[in-house]
Amino acid sequence: MSIPSNRLTYQTAGESHGPGLVATILGVPAGLTIDVGIINGELARRQGGYGRGGRQKLETDAIEILTGVRRGVSIGAPITFLVQNRDSRLDDLERTPPVHRPRPGHADLAGSIKWLTTDCRETLERASARETAARVAACCVGRLMLKEIFGVEVFGFVRSILDARTDVEVSHDRLGKLIEARNASQTYTLDEATTQKQCGIIRQAKVDRDTVGGDVECHVFGCPPGIGSSMNWYDKLDARIAYAVMGIQAFKAVQLGLGVGCSHRLGSQVHDPIEYDVSKINEPSLGFVRCSNNAGGTEGGMSNGQPIVVTGTMKPIATLLMGLPSVDLNTKEAEDSQYERSDVCAVSAASVVMEHVVAFEVAGAFMEKFGGDSVIETRANYESFLEVARALPLDRTSPPDSVIT
């Protein structure tokens, strides 16, 4: 099977305690600035957040560029990154002994049965969220594309941990201050009072030898109407975003806009009325404005010109210090699950991962519509589309000058 040259895709490989993680990105046009500082900064954010475990003190994640970049700029070839693991101990049986008591909520049991073994070790190493370091690195390239080529910005943060929720509203005109507030928060939320409540919840969970989850939110600003498609289910932008978010370890739900709240309202209370403001014709919405955004920026599988708003729910981490009732796979006797070094809460880190996988899916949809071999060509394609869209309705009564008779 061949993949179209403008199809933006990525693949990651590597185990959590292997020598390193590899990310390969296909479909990046030539001429994109690959800012290593930005990528490493996002990797550092993924390692942060209150409630993280001991591994984060052992590693400082950074990428090594192996292919596809010359002098800091993409050349149109596949881009490959390596993120080394400092804690590489997969073959050390003293440090990584067999795991015969699967953890409820983790991949341990299902993976052991799938691969016909009673040792959960290999499953838990590959299923580990350590893999998301490579995913953030790969998806950050998509985020760089959105910003440099299309002027699209992406912002993610923690909306809630357990019942400690911030009600701060997010808007593009306040983006700078919102980023500043998030980066100042130990839990990556948007106000100090909620940060302190969330930290208190995590501290108590650690005392109780338990774990906590929460909701993370991502906003995409600057998408014009028509990104994605209603023609095929697999090309729908909202479906692609939902798939990517649900692919993050420990995520159990995803919604766009009002999401499940739609089931509790009448249609007149759900659908966002459309108005036209000619003074905003040069904005990404092309002048089509709404007084609400319950749709979360997508309708019919396509962006509608409003900010794309995605919420993902992360369950509490499955590795508990207290252990949970389980079974020894060798003896079939009742035993508590085995403990593996883990976090009490990784919701903050998950917000960074979700922010980037959402960005990558949006970037992929942009490239399928406007893609070219270079940044210059792709940007020209995009600007040409916007020019024609602003000129609607088109005069279809006269044949184009280029018609040959």
Helices and strands, in order, run as: EEHHEEEEHHHEEHHEEHEHEEEEEEEHH
- Going by helix content, strand content and strand pairing, the class is alpha+beta
CA-based shape: globular
What is the CATH C level class, in words? Alpha Beta
Helix content range of the residues, please? 25-40%
Total domains, how many? Answer: 1
Give me the CATH superfamily: Chorismate synthase AroC
Predict the CATH topology.
Answer: Chorismate synthase, AroC fold
Using the CA coordinates, give the radius of gyration: 23 Å
Overall pLDDT level:
91
* First-last Cα distance: 40 Å
Count, helices: 11
Query: What does the largest sheet look like?
Result: 5 strands, antiparallel
Strand order of the largest sheet: 8-7-9-16-11
